[in-house]
Amino acid sequence: MSKNEMTAPSTVPATMPVTTSQANARLRAFIKRNRNTILIWIVLLITMIVSALVSESFTNPRNFPNIMRQSAALMLVGIGQTLIMLTGGIDLSVGSTVSLTVVIMAALMKPTPESMIASLIAGLFVGLFVGFVNGTIVNRFKLAPFMVTLATLSIVQGLALQFRQNPQATIPREFSPFFIDEFLGIPIPFLIILGSTLIAWIGLRYTRLGRHFYAVGSNEMATRLSGMSTDRIKLLAFMLCGLMASLGGVFIAARSRAGDPFIGEGFAFDSITVTILGGTSLLGGSGSVWVTLAGVWILTILSNVLNLTGVPANYQFVVKGVLLVIAVMAYGRRRTR
Amino acid sequence: MSTPLFRVENISKAFPGVKALSNVSFDVAAQEVHALVGENGAGKSTLMKIMSGVYQPDEGQLFWQDQPVILRTPQDAQTRGIRIIYQEFNLLPDLTVAENILLNRESRNRWGLIDWTAMTRRAEQVLALLKTDIAPTLLVSELSVAQQQLVEIAKSLAEDARLIIMDEPTAALNALEVAHLFEVIAQLKANGAGIIFISHRLEEVLQISDRITVLKDGCLVATHPTHEQSKARIVTLMVGRDLKDIFPVKTLPAATTPLLDVHGLESNVLRGISFQVMPGEIVGFAGLEGQGQRELARSLFGLEVVRGGTIAIDGRTMRIGSPQQAIRAGIALVSDDRKRDGLALKLNVRENIALPNLPMFTRMGFVSTKSERSSAQRMIDALAIRTPHMEQSVRLLSGGNQQKTVLGKWMVHPPRLMVIIEPTRGVDVGAKMEIYHLIDQMAHDGMGIVIVSSELLELIGMCHRIFVMHRGMIAAEFAGDQATEESIMHVATGADVPLASV
């Protein structure tokens, strides 16, 4: 068959005017397709309303930049986790990657612009490298990402302790404003969150690589038989995930200004929680960064309100766990249909 | 015949313990449909995998347009325009139809970003060639099997495939969809493509192909022009048995009190289904895909939410809300997707047969391996399950033997009523015969049988009565020996014909 016949426009009817019923059908299809996203944003809205009711401080204007500062790093790491989980993988090493990034940046950074930029780049290389190692081992030896990244979690944590300075190094004061101040009256953490989400969304929806993440997660064998290198796609997913973890580390470094080798602890759990909270499938293939964003904010607002109302920090872990079980139940039910 | 598009010469391939192919030569020309037939294990899949770059031959040579080629990977084959459509589709369920069709050839705008409008348009154009109105924006997981098949074909069209290998393309299609597929194949052929058509359905092979090659036990039996062949001759070549022996002779049940009495069954799909099955009777359900036959069968096993109506066994109304209740009522279900519903693929033959019977084998919480083994052996013997030993993983059995294992599961303690969906899907002629005779034997022993099948000849050959379903209702009832493919299809497609005239 010739190419001409393939693209002959005569075979399709000319674009017809969109009638109301068609528009309705489209809206319905949109709602059906994006049910998860809509649902999780409603949950976020409810969380916000309830929070405002139980704590007056929640609605204090100073609390907004505060919540953004608390959620930016988690969103950056969460985007990475979402990418890797779309391919059907998981990355447990993101927490120690955050820590190692912070430790290395703290060790290297002097209060000069050149040093700040160089240290930042060095920090980002940490994540790229960890991701490269993760992806290569997973591909080369056909191992489960869960096991491989469990191993690198420990290795990278060890490196973070090794590179810790004694006395503990700090990040120069001059580095922080770029990440936590305001820009045109808008908190920069908020801009970071929106910007990274938008870029990730465009990347996932409008680039070949992004679609191939979904493809690999949906059916890896079919993707390979369609002539694509699934190893390359998975490697890139791990490297991007590592890079996002390091970006999270950069933000943490700017915010805490301490070269604490345990600062990233909890990011693996939290990033997986927010990804699952949004309904991104553990089996890969479906999900989006918008739902992860809602998940991040739900989790952050919950901690925020629990803090504001004086609930002991220990209970926050319980709350997170309960939330995770509820999310898994809600989505698991649908998947087994 | 012009010069072949693709030719393989003296191909041999061995796997540990099996000689899959020995010294097979085969070719396909442009504008030709070359059918490849043979029982399961005859070597068809191995040959196709060699021709599409998945396997490397141990011996022999491949020629693409008379030039020697080596296909190291599926990509190698694809770049030359060789495309294989596997029986188990290779689609991405979470992606849209358009993405699946244009996978790795996505439309991009000048910034390198995916142009969804153009993708949709291109996919629409390709789908229009197949005369289907599948919306490119749907997710593949939302499509029926027949639609997924069309998407697979659209995918090869979009890749400008020169040679399309179709492995059992009609296995999951009903008669109408098959007719549609054949139009598509004719069109592909007219456009210059070569097609290798692998099928168990010999009527279809005779109808669509130009030449037929028969493989048996890894060896080439013969290649003949189709017009010189008849179904009987092909079957003889394949199995060395006569066609009229395929279906057992029907014996009418003597009983007059119904074993199963379904009255006014209602669900999301079903609308007022009422019918009876006598002990020893084989009742068939025909219809286009999605008309409620599957749901009916699943309802009898407690797998669907039923809104109204009654199911009575031996005159007693039963509540059947779960498989447990169905099994207790004496109903068993053999699903059409044995790999998903019927078998625990990671377990062996013995364990699979034991699975629904474990309570009977258990003493004080411990499974008695002795009774488990003896009943497994009894089933292997009774159903002639061909397996080296009962510890063999079921995954390694042929389709026919897997199906017999599923039947064996239920026959350890025979149920009153056996519901079977697509009893012989993906099963070769020889095993089909054996399964038909097994089913006949069960009925003979007084069991009631309900068969849902898209293979009309199977229903006509096996059933005492055939119900045709349309839009969730029973549209017609035929006596088994009066039904014809034409008469059933007529009702199934919703053509408005009064019952009296059929």
Entry summary:
Chain A has about 325 residues and is mainly alpha-helical. Chain A has helices at about 5, 20-35, 35-55, 65-85, 95-110, 115-140, 145-165, 175-180, 190-205, 210-220, 220-225, 230-255, 265-275, 290-310, 315-335, and strands spanning about 180-185, 185.
- Tell me which CATH architecture of chain A applies here: Orthogonal Bundle
Helix content of chain A: over 70%
Largest interface: A-B, 34 and 38 residues
- Number of β-strand runs of chain B: 22
Unreliable stretches of chain B = 496-502
Largest pleated sheet of chain B:
6 strands, mixed
SS field, number of helical segments of chain A = 15
Beta percentage of chain B is 15-25%
The third-level CATH topology of the largest domain in chain B is Rossmann fold
What is the terminal separation of chain A in angstroms?
Answer: 41 Å
Tell me the radius of gyration of chain A: 22 Å
Annotated CATH topology of chain A: ABC transporter involved in vitamin B12 uptake, BtuC
What count of domains describes the coordinates of chain A? 1
CATH superfamily of the largest domain in chain B: P-loop containing nucleotide triphosphate hydrolases
Structural class of chain A: mainly alpha
Subunit organisation of the chains: heterodimer
Key terms:
heterodimer; A: 337 residues; mainly alpha; ABC transporter involved in vitamin B12 uptake, BtuC; two-stranded antiparallel sheet; 73% helix; 1% strand; disordered N terminus; B: 502 residues; alpha/beta; Rossmann fold; six-stranded mixed β-sheet; 22 strands; 33% helix; globular; disordered C terminus
Describe the model.
The complex is a heterodimer of chains A (337) and B (502). Helix content of chain A is 73%, strand content 1%. By secondary structure, chain A is mostly helical. Chain A has a single domain (66-335), classed as ABC transporter involved in vitamin B12 uptake, BtuC. In chain A, strands 1-2 form a two-stranded antiparallel ribbon. In chain A, helix 14 runs antiparallel to helix 15 (313-335). Chain A is globular, with a radius of gyration of 22 Å. Residues 1-16 of chain A have low confidence and may be disordered. With 502 residues, chain B is an alpha/beta fold. Chain B has 3 domains: 4-241, P-loop containing nucleotide triphosphate hydrolases (Rossmann fold); 246-330 and 415-502, 3-Layer(aba) Sandwich (Rossmann fold), CATH 3.40.50; 343-410, no CATH class. Helix content of chain B is 33%, strand content 25%. Chain B is built from 18 helices and 22 strands. Chain B has a 6-stranded mixed beta sheet with strand order 6-7-8-3-9-10, with helices on both faces. In chain B, strand 21 and strand 22 form a beta hairpin. In chain B, helix 4 (116-129) crosses helix 5. Chain B is globular. In chain B, 50% of the residues are buried. The chains are: A mainly alpha (337), B alpha/beta (502). Chains A and B meet through helix 1, helix 9, helix 10 and helix 11 of A and helix 2, helix 4 and helix 5 of B.
